[in-house]
Amino acid sequence: MAKPYPKPVKQVKKGYVRRNKYNNKKQTYNGRSYDSILECKHAQELDWLLKSGEVIKWEPQHKISLDINGVHIANYFIDFKVWFKDGRIEFHEVKGMETEVWKMKWKITKAIFPDYNLVLLK
Predict the structure, then answer these.
(1) pLDDT for position 50
(2) What was the pLDDT predicted at 8?
(3) Is residue 15 part of a domain?
(4) 87 with 58: CB under 8 angstroms?
(5) Residue 54 in contact with residue 84, Cβ under 8 Å?
(6) 7, 34, 43, 103: which one has the fewest Cβ atoms less than 10 Å from its Cβ?
(7) CA–CA dist 84, 77 (Å, integer)
(8) 18 burial class (0-12, 13-18, 19+ CB within 10 angstroms)?
(9) Residue 79, domain member (yes or no)
(10) How far apart are the C-alpha atoms of 18 and 83, rounded to whole Å?
(11) Which of 49, 64, 51 is nearest to 109 (CA)?
(12) Overall number of domains in the chain
């Protein structure tokens, strides 16, 4: 069996900065890298809610397994899982550009887990 050719590496012209295809700028906050400025700002807001006592804890990039009839379809990494003082749990998705793949995963997640408190932040 022939070996597959390696994927070509994109060359960036000297003096140019390689950007994300959606023009998102990665940000670092508290030693963690976030995919966009909006995500980073939301993490900061969650820390303020944590300090105020409204939020017990939060975790970034929570994995939700999308399984239908015992068949694994995909994993959905939602931006934040948030536990509140009053006992509720919310799943926060911070979105700038909505792709077709994301829209499909969002609909599947809502259909499989109708009791989840899914919050879309734009």
Answers:
(1) 96
(2) 58
(3) no
(4) no
(5) yes
(6) 7
(7) 20
(8) exposed
(9) yes
(10) 37
(11) 64
(12) 1
In a domain, 22, yes or no: no
Measured between alpha carbons, how far is residue 82 from residues 9, 13, 55, 57, 79 in Å? 38, 42, 7, 6, 10
Residue 116 token pair = 């989840």
pLDDT (0 to 100) of residue 22? 60
Q: For residue 76, is it within any domain?
A: yes
Token readout for 68 is 């239908």
Q: Which tokens sit at 28?
A: 């670092």
In order of 4, 5, 8, 119, the CA distances from 1 in angstroms are 9, 12, 21, 48
CATH number at residue 86: 3.40.1350.10
Is the distance from CB of 66 to CB of 78 less than 8 angstroms?
A: no
Q: Using alpha carbons, list the distances in angstroms from residue 65 to 47, 49, 80, 88, 109.
A: 26, 28, 15, 20, 9
pLDDT at 25: 78
Residue range(s) defining the domain that contains residue 66? 27-121
Tell me how far apart the alpha carbons of residues 9 and 30 are, in angstroms, rounded to a whole number. Answer: 32
Mean pLDDT, residues 85-105: 92
Q: With contact defined as beta carbons under 8 Å apart, do 62 and 90 qualify?
A: no
